[in-house]
Write a structure and sequence with these properties.
heterodimer; A: mainly beta; six-stranded mixed sheet; five-stranded antiparallel sheet; globular; B: mainly beta; four-stranded antiparallel sheet; 47% strand
Chain lengths: 109, 114
Amino acid sequence: GQNIDQPTEMTATEGAIVQINCTYQTSGFNGLFWYQQHAGEAPTFLSYNVLDGLEEKGRFSSFLSRSKGYSYLLLKELQMKDSASYLCAVTTNDYKLSFGAGTTVTVRA
Amino acid sequence: IAGITQAPTSQILAAGRRMTLRCTQDMRHNAMYWYRQDLGLGLRLIHYSNTAGTTGKGEVPDGYSVSRANTDDFPLTLASAVPSQTSVYFCASSDQAGGADTQYFGPGTRLTVL
């Protein structure tokens, strides 16, 4: 199986920036997804990185370093609605998607 | 467009009973997946189907079976439920198999086995 690590919980203040790290050890790495999941709801797609570097989408950015087996999701200008779990998921050459346990982000006023 | 629907939303089941979780998508996606999500473990793949008529085993297939008779439907069956199968079950689909395609998730089924 794949080994995917991310912090369990993070807390930040409204308007601040939070960086969620994800490290992975895998063979046949293809790319890395970030999903957002609000409590009691389905995961929804945020980003997909295949190449090294930073991908920016509005307030959310995702970074990938294939050589280091490392990614992060950056959430800027935090809003209360950003309180959710953020799931790091790795896709490999065997066409499978493996998820980390998720990071629960709590945004406080 | 509904996307992916799952039924039931939640279910309490006696151990030893048979149960089928239903999943239907209207996006004409080729690939479909079943995951279970448990606290602290994240989403784990149970079974998948790359295209209608084919299925494959994921990370935790024991105790579960699936079928893919057509493009839209991908039911998951627990032949004889056990308490360790208490979980939230998510169905997902993607346009193509291969992992690199974005997967779209249904709303989930919360199953409790007593």
